[in-house]
Structure formats: structure tokens, C-alpha cells
Design brief:
The complex is a heterodimer of chains A (about 325) and B (about 300).
Chain A (H helix, E strand, L loop, with lengths): L1 H35 L1 H42 L12 H8 L1 H33 L5 H13 L2 H12 L4 H8 L13 H26 L3 H9 L4 H28 L3 H8 L10 H11 L2 H34 L1
Chain B lengths: L1 H50 L4 H16 L22 H9 L1 H34 L3 H15 L2 H14 L7 H8 L3 H10 L4 H9 L4 H12 L1 H16 L3 H6 L8 H4 L8 H33 L5
Classes of the chains: A mainly alpha (about 325), B mainly alpha (about 300).
Chain lengths: ~325, ~300
């Protein structure tokens, strides 16, 4: 028995040796070929490089003219006193902006909103994804239902929200009939709750899809093995699934954070240019600055915002590097 | 010995039954959660649609007080009650007939939306598919840096990108024209990102085979890469379309003339006089997106999924 195994081993090694030989022979051949056709090889490669660069050109020129070059000008504007005399004032514009009351309100409102809305968006969408991952009936219908808010324009749905959350609206009707107080939803500090609800309504479906993709990419056999080793469902979820989900988890968090900066849309359509104080968002401030053509304030705000975004995106990339390897390796 | 065995079996039987009960319970719970969310998600949409079949007078009677107060700035506490109704007392198409036949301004605004969004979707896809061919065909260091810049730009919120857009539109004297929306939209890097990811998935061998058969770069792009990334083209088209059909920030800032505003902005300015047809307008406005959704749900899901893992 043992002898047989040994024999097989030697045969294998022989084959391997043969394979190595042919490989090295082919490599030598290729090397010789490359040496002879060296110039030609790089020429075609260079041609590919140049021609395919032409395909990028239209897009790149557009991005250059509409985003990158003017962005450099924005940086310049943020450092001078006004675009015409262009006197360098250092960080004065930033200091002025940071002292500005409406900027402070807008930032704290936007951050406060994100701090509440983002964790809720992540957790609830994970719940939805897990629910859809189980064996419930009408799975594909449910997925369609959960995705539909994503497709409906905010403007179309705002009427109903206004009817629901008005002082004399439907939500208050229900509250009163339950013996609760009447709340002025859109014109009190409760307005933030309304905005969070609108945000969740719109964005849960998107996050859910990301989580569903991640859940279905977990190899079934690992879970099978864990089940055979008598791990309970909670352990399976916590020790296996969350490990595979971790990168998606962070990705969803950051995408939600980014979309939480876009909640202005809902607020504007619901309450117009001048909302209640607690839902005065960054974009409101920007709109006012655009209306006054206050280039300094606009530029400084845009630069600060882009710096914040770069920090956020940088975290995303670092985290993806680290956790992506953790699961694959 | 025998007794012990049967005891053991009984034990496992009980455990099995309990386990089965527990899993049924879990399934019921999951279904309940799903149903609750589904109702919450669909309710506003369904209410908008059903309300669009009420006659104008019924709408005014039900919701008049809300829009009367919110349009006049200060709040007047009217004692009037609001009736949120699922089903109209009498189904009527009067809202639709008024919108479609007697008040052309809504149709104009709808047409504004179409004229703003259509070219953006079409040309962004053309520009982006060309660029993503370039990004996928050759991967050098410089190109990776440019692609990275595209990703960062794609993730930037409007608070950042609108300022440079405004400046350029001002320099080019296209502020307050449709071009101010079109051009930044066409060159927006979102579709480039999505399509590059799909084109990089095309095996190099396929492209090399075509090359050996004598295909030029244009033919490789036109006859191999475009057909092979058809799915991603659809996904990108859908995502770009929803994004711009929904736009509010860009027209508010780049189009000061409210005549040119798309319906998405105009709808929010509806007041008591027009409340009788607002629901029909809102429904008409969501029809295109719902149709796209109906036909392209899979593409939408694929598009979102391939956004996961930005670096890809």
C-alpha cells in the first residue's frame, strides 16, 4: 500500500518535472520572440494606449471644464476678498463662514439629521434584507414593494406627506383619536422626525439591495458546517454573517451618509425656501448664498464640504481595503 | 436498554417539534415585518394615485384647509378637519381632463422635464461608454488616477459640485438656459464608473481574439464591448434617469427663470387654487418612472449591486 503511494508520488514528480521543462522551454521561446519583436510589441501597446485615450477624451474634457478647472477657481475664490480685486486674504473667508450663524445652524442640523438617520437606515435595511433572505412567501413581490419608493419622484409624493403631517392632517387625526396631543409636525422640532421618516422611506430599498447581494454571496457551505457543529442561528448570524457583511456594512453606512446630505430635496419640496429652524439644511444656506451671489461664502463652504467628503471617502477606501482582505484571505 | 432508547427518541421528537414551531413562528414574524413595511412603503404612492381620481371639489373639501394655510405664509389655525381618503366618493377623471385639456402649463412643465432629462440620459451614456472603453482597454498609472478622480467626483454632494457648475455656466453665458443643466449632466461621471466596471469584466481573450481577426479599436468597442455590456447600459440609463427626473437642486440654482423649471420643482409650488388637480399632476409625473421600474427592475437591482464595492 505504502509502496504504491510512493510510486505514485514519483510518477507525479516526474510529470511535474516534465511540465516544468516544457514550461521553461516555452518561456525561453517567448523570451526569444519578445527580444526579436521587442520594438513591435511595445508599438502596438503604445498604439492601444493612445487610441483608447482618445475614447476617454470627450468625457475627460467635459469633466475638466465643468468640474475640475472651475473647482480650482473655487479654491482661489475661497482665498481672496472678492473675484475682481482678488486680494489674497488667507483663511479669512473660512473664519467668516465658521462664525456665520446660518452656516452653523445648517451644519449642526445636517449633522444631527445624519447622526439619527444613517444608523436607522443601516439597521432597518439590514432587517429588511434578512427578512427577504428567509423563506417568506411572495419574496419577489416584497422586493418590488420595498424598491418602489426609490423610483417614485419625491415631488409626486410630497402632496400626500403634506396631507399626512399637516397640523390638521391625517397623522394628527390618528394621534387625537388615540388620546394623544396634536403636534405641529412641520413647524416644530418634530419636523426632524418627519424628515427622517421621508429619508428612510426613500432610501431603505437601495441599502436593502446592497445587503441582499452581500447576504447571498456568503458561501452556503460555511453556514452548513456551522449548523452541523450545532451553532445556533444567533451565533451563525453574529460570527459568520456579520463577518462577511462587514465591508457592505461600512459601504452602506457611507452611502447613506452621502445621501443624507441630499435630504434637502425632501425638505425643500415639503416646506420651501424657509423651513422651520431645525430642518434648515446646508443646501438652504447654499441656495441663499447663490441668491446673493456671495462667491466667498459659497467657495469656502464648498471647499469645507469637499474636505469633509474626502475624509469620509478616504475612510471608505481604507476600510474596504482592510475588511475586503479580512474576508477573502 | 430498550426503554432508554425510546425515551431518547421521544426527547428528540419533542425537540424537533419545538424547533419546527419556532421556525414557523420566525417565518410568521418575518412575513409580518415585511407586510408592515410594504404597507408603509406603498401607502403614499397608492394614496396619491387614488386621490387623483377624486373630483376637484372633493379634493378641495377634504384638503383645502391645508393648502390654504401653507400657501399664505403665516399659519391660520382653521378648525376644519382633513379627511385623508383611500377611495374617492365618486371616481372621476375630471382632474385628468383639466390637466390634459384645459391647463397647458402643467403639460409645459412636464415637457420641460422631458427635454431636460432625455438628452442627459442619452448623451451621458454615449460619452460614458466611450470613456469606459478607454478605461477598460488599457490600465496605466495615469488612467487609474483619473478614474479615481471620477469616483471621488461621483460621490461629491451637490453642495460641492454646484458651485463649479455655476461658475462655468456663468462664464459660458449659458446660465438660465437648458444648457446649464444639460452639459454638467452629460459629463457627470456616474455612468462612466458603472460601465467601466462592466467592461473590465469582459475577458481580455475575447478582445484579443477580435484583434487577431483584424478588428480595429472602433470595431472592438462597437461590436464587442457595447453589446457585452448591454445590461450595464440599461442599469446606468435607469439610475441616471431617476436621478435627473427627480432633480431639484440644479434647476433651482442654474435656472432662475421659473418658466424653465421642470415639474419636479413646480409641483411643490402648487397652492390652494390648483390643489384640485395636483394629485393628477403628481400621478402623471410618476408614470414614466413607474413604467421604467416595471420593465427594468432587474437592471435597477443589478445597477445598485454593482455599486457595492466601489473599487471593484
Amino acid at each position: 500500500m505504502k509502496k504504491h503511494v510512493d510510486a505514485q508520488k514519483t510518477v507525479l514528480t516526474k510529470e511535474e518535472r516534465l511540465l516544468q521543462k516544457t514550461q521553461s522551454r516555452e518561456e525561453k521561446k517567448a523570451l526569444r520572440y519578445r527580444k526579436r519583436h521587442h520594438g513591435k510589441e511595445t508599438k502596438t501597446r503604445r498604439k492601444i494606449k493612445l487610441v483608447s485615450a482618445l475614447y476617454i477624451a470627450p468625457s475627460f474634457l467635459g469633466v475638466l471644464t465643468f468640474f475640475l478647472v472651475p473647482f480650482l477657481v473655487v479654491i482661489f475664490y475661497s482665498l481672496v476678498d472678492n473675484p475682481i480685486s482678488a486680494r489674497f486674504v488667507g483663511l479669512d473667508n473660512y473664519a467668516r463662514l465658521l462664525k456665520n450663524l446660518s452656516f452653523k445652524t445648517a451644519v449642526s442640523n445636517t449633522l444631527g439629521f445624519s447622526a439619527v438617520a444613517v444608523p436607522l437606515a443601516v439597521i432597518l435595511s439590514l432587517v429588511l434584507a434578512v427578512v427577504l433572505d428567509s423563506k417568506i412567501p411572495f419574496k419577489s413581490q416584497f422586493r418590488t414593494f420595498f424598491l418602489s419608493p426609490l423610483m417614485v419622484p419625491v415631488a409626486s409624493i410630497v402632496l400626500i406627506w403634506r396631507v399626512m403631517f399637516d397640523f390638521n392632517g391625517a397623522v394628527n387625526d390618528v394621534l387625537v383619536s388615540l388620546g394623544g396631543p396634536k403636534i405641529d409636525w412641520l413647524k416644530s422640532s418634530y419636523s426632524q422626525i418627519v424628515v427622517v421618516i421621508l429619508f428612510l422611506w426613500k432610501n431603505l430599498g437601495y441599502n436593502m439591495i446592497l445587503f441582499m447581494a452581500a447576504l447571498s454571496s456568503i458561501p452556503r457551505d460555511i453556514i452548513e458546517v456551522a449548523r452541523m457543529e450545532s451553532a445556533n442561528p444567533f451565533q451563525i448570524f453574529w460570527y459568520i454573517k456579520t463577518r462577511y457583511l462587514s465591508s457592505t456594512f461600512l459601504f452602506v453606512t457611507i452611502m447613506s451618509l452621502i445621501s443624507s446630505f441630499k435630504v434637502f430635496r425632501e425638505v425643500y419640496l415639503l416646506t420651501g425656501d424657509h423651513p422651520y429652524d431645525t430642518i434648515y439644511m446646508l443646501q438652504h444656506m447654499m441656495n441663499n448664498a447663490f441668491a446673493q451671489l456671495d462667491y466667498q461664502r459659497l467657495s469656502a463652504a464648498a471647499i469645507l464640504m469637499s474636505l469633509a467628503m474626502i475624509v469620509i471617502i478616504g475612510t471608505l477606501f481604507l476600510v474596504e481595503d482592510r475588511f475586503g482582505k479580512d474576508v477573502e484571505g | 436498554m430498550k426503554k432508554e432508547k425510546s425515551l431518547d427518541r421521544k426527547y428528540t421528537k419533542g425537540r424537533l417539534r419545538r424547533k419546527k414551531l419556532w421556525s414557523t413562528f420566525k417565518l410568521a414574524l418575518a412575513t409580518c415585518i415585511a407586510a408592515a413595511f410594504a404597507v408603509a412603503f406603498l401607502l403614499p404612492i397608492i394614496l396619491t394615485i387614488t386621490n387623483s381620481f377624486m373630483s376637484s371639489s372633493e379634493i378641495a373639501a377634504n384638503y383645502g384647509s391645508i393648502f390654504a394655510t401653507s400657501s399664505s405664509g403665516g399659519r391660520v389655525y382653521v378648525a376644519e378637519k382633513v379627511n385623508l381618503k383611500f377611495i374617492p366618493d365618486m371616481v372621476s377623471f375630471s382632474q385628468y381632463s383639466t390637466v390634459l385639456l384645459r391647463s397647458p402649463e402643467y403639460l409645459f412643465k412636464f415637457w420641460n422635464s422631458v427635454i431636460l432629462v432625455g438628452p442627459i440620459v442619452l448623451f451621458q451614456l454615449i460619452v460614458a461608454s466611450l470613456a469606459s472603453y478607454g478605461f477598460a482597454r488599457y490600465r496605466g498609472k495615469l488612467r487609474e488616477i483619473v478614474f479615481f478622480a471620477y469616483i471621488i467626483l461621483m460621490l461629491m454632494p451637490y453642495q460641492v459640485t454646484l458651485v463649479p457648475n455655476y461658475l462655468v455656466s456663468n462664464w459660458l453665458k449659458i446660465l438660465d438656459t437648458n444648457w446649464a443643466i444639460w452639459l454638467p449632466g452629460i459629463f457627470s461621471p456616474f455612468a462612466v464608473f458603472l460601465l467601466t466596471k462592466s467592461m473590465r469584466r469582459i475577458p481580455v481573450a475575447t478582445i484579443e481574439a477580435a484583434q487577431i481577426d483584424g478588428a480595429g479599436e472602433w470595431q472592438i468597442y462597437r461590436r464587442i464591448c457595447l453589446p457585452l455590456s448591454r445590461g450595464s447600459l440599461c442599469s446606468a440609463a435607469i439610475l441616471v434617469f431617476i436621478d435627473y427626473w427627480n432633480m431639484v437642486e440644479q434647476p433651482l440654482i442654474l435656472l432662475t427663470d421659473s418658466e424653465k423649471h421642470p415639474l419636479s420643482v413646480f409641483l411643490s409650488k402648487i397652492n390652494e387654487g390648483e390643489i384640485g388637480l395636483a394629485f393628477a399632476v403628481a400621478t402623471i409625473y410618476m408614470v414614466p418612472t413607474l413604467l421604467v421600474f416595471l420593465y427594468g427592475e432587474e437592471y435597477l437591482v443589478d445597477g445598485i449591486t454593482s455599486q457595492g464595492g466601489i473599487k471593484g
